[in-house]
Amino acid sequence: MPIKAMAYSSLDFVKKHNESYFQLLRLARVSEGVDSDVIDRKKAITILNQLPFFHEEHKQKVHKRLIPLLNDKAHKLAIFNALSAESQKILMLGTQQGIVTELASKKQLNNIIAALSEDNIPLILLKGAAFAEVLYSPQAPRPSNDLDILIQKQHWHKAVALIKTLMKYTEKAQADVFGDLYELSFIPKGKIGAAVDLHASLINPLLFNIDEVQLWQESVEHPSFNNQLVRMLSPEHALIHQALHAYKDMDFCKYNLVDSHEIINAQQADIKQTIVIAKQWGVSTALFVLLKNCTEIMGTNLDNKSKSKNKNNSERNGDLLQQIKPNLIMYKIMVKLLKSRFTQPIGNTKPLRYRVNQIIAQFVFSGSVLRPLALQWLYVKSALKKRLSND
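The chain above was modelled as a monomer; its predicted structure follows.
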């Protein structure tokens, strides 16, 4: 898909962004190659010279995790020297930092793997930890802030005890009454290493019907560790996890689109099978939003296994999305939720508007009435119990 100016006013599930925001996402794609028919080099230069805008005006450093990918693309396109000095500096420093970060993460991860392997405890690497050296190269990584690791419930307490010998437990920055219901966070004891989020489930197990048995049975050995105990999700489950995590963040339009595009392209995720699983697990609404943004923003061909010549990519994408498209009322509610200014806590506070959006989103994205009600009832009971214990 050529990089060109595109009208995104019709994007329903995306907050308002500068056009360069979308162009940088597309330029970061790894599986597109550098053919001149795919990428216009002059336009790529213009896009990359917008990086200072994102790194100076945006305090959160938008697209920071894509800098090594963009740097790699600039060199492969042989346009790096044509960029502004400021853009070159951002790309070089960002790539150096990304490589160092990933090396520290790999060292931390190897220590954890060694400790768990001694007790024959399998683990599944999630998100960035899984994609390193699979979707992205060590020279052009897609850095992560932490390591996400999934542990089976029968090994949970032993795994926690082992990791506590290596790292320090830390309470989440936005802790609530559920606290450590399905995820614990750890930080390195020294100055070097990465934080770890240890998961007992992909997401709150009360809200979605995740088949943990299927998840583990269809996981595959990670190719970088020569250890059958070190696993990664199947491409279909990895894509569903991308949708779940985007729902959790209430943001379906950031580096997760690059990851999802690569899962579909490089790992050849079977979208038809992914849709079947998503329906069974109650994740089809979140998957719809993720795939819709992939097609509209990234130019992703969802039906990469189709041999039909009777329909173009757009028509085949539409046919697949139609299978999980929510009804009109739910669709409009989703648009309001995802475009809201209150999709995340503000600073260290969770304003009422955020709480309301959070509860509505639980009903919308879970596709259930009973599950969110059960979750809210547990929330109330847990909050009362916590308050009484503090009195």
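The longest strand covers residues 183-188.
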